[in-house]
Write a structure and sequence with these properties.
Shape: globular
Distance between the termini: 36 Å
Number of helices: 0
Largest sheet: 10 strands, mixed
């Protein structure tokens, strides 16, 4: 469920307490089912929780729900007034294609799946893998966004992030990008804040950092959150702040996103000279 603060600088709060899944107080909860590697090479699932579970933003603010960014994922399909079952602006990180077939809702859960498969008539550059994306139809500026999830045990990424691109400005905040496989990555929490262009920036600005967790992300469900206001951006894990960043640029309303990608920068997919991908550790 999502909440807006009654303070002068409104915040949005989101929190999932879904067992086995992802819930964002700013728009959703997702739940992860057990890995099904016999069926799919990758399985990425966020689970949404019961309606009685509510966001738990930091003390000190007065919060009110934002219905258009709250969802319990009841029924058997996404609410199209709140969510896209793909990313309308992006087909996916090559070679993994965002397929709406990899987004499903059942038993109060939203499931995002990545598969090793070749689909017919894909755009140039996409092959071998399909992944998944869900994007909010509403925008948010400032807020506290919380999810409870278990990333998939896969070399495809599990990601929770915000972005918007207009003619004047393109900014992004990555709450997390997680790889669930490999000693180097399975407990590494990747965070970032980007300015691709803005009235005050013509060069790409990237403020990335990592946090090493005392656990493997895929072993259990944990609560991940972003607190974002006009002065400061904070990354939370299980109720503790793991990173703070002065907010020098991120004042643009952003869409919320959940997705899975084939990300070479996380050593998930290596593209050989023949352009055919192979999975690596």
């Amino acid at each position: 469920m999502i909440f807006r603060s009654l303070n002068l600088n409104p915040l949005i709060a989101a929190r999932p307490r879904c067992k086995g899944g992802l819930r964002s107080s700013f728009g959703g909860r997702r739940h992860a089912r057990p890995d099904s590697l016999t069926t799919f090479v990758f399985l990425f699932i966020f689970v949404c929780c019961a309606a009685t579970l509510r966001a738990d933003p930091p003390a000190g603010g007065k919060w009110t729900p934002i219905p258009e960014l709250s969802d319990e994922f009841q029924g058997d399909k996404l609410d199209s007034t709140k969510w896209h079952d793909h990313n309308p602006d992006w087909k996916g990180r090559e070679p993994g294609f965002f397929s709406a077939n990899n987004v499903s809702v059942s038993d109060g859960q939203l499931h995002l799946t990545a598969r090793a498969e070749n689909l017919k008539d894909l755009p140039q550059g996409y092959h071998t893998f399909t992944t998944a994306a869900v994007k909010s139809t509403a925008l948010a500026k400032y807020g506290y966004f919380e999810i409870k999830c278990r990333p998939m045990k896969s070399k495809a990424s599990s990601a929770f992030w915000f972005y918007s691109r207009t003619k004047e400005e393109w900014t992004e905040i990555d709450v997390f990008e997680i790889c669930g496989v490999g000693e180097r990555w399975n407990s590494t929490y990747n965070m970032n804040a980007h300015v691709f262009f803005a009235p005050t920036e013509t060069n790409h600005l990237s403020k990335g950092d990592t946090w090493k967790a005392p656990f493997d992300f895929v072993d259990d469900y944990h609560v991940y959150a972003l607190e974002w206001d006009k002065d400061l951006i904070k990354w939370w894990v299980d109720g503790k702040v793991v990173r703070e960043l002065k907010n020098t640029h991120w004042h643009q309303p952003l869409n919320m996103n959940f997705d899975s990608e084939t990300m070479p920068e996380l050593s998930l997919i290596h593209i050989s000279e023949s352009t055919r991908p192979r999975l690596i550790s």
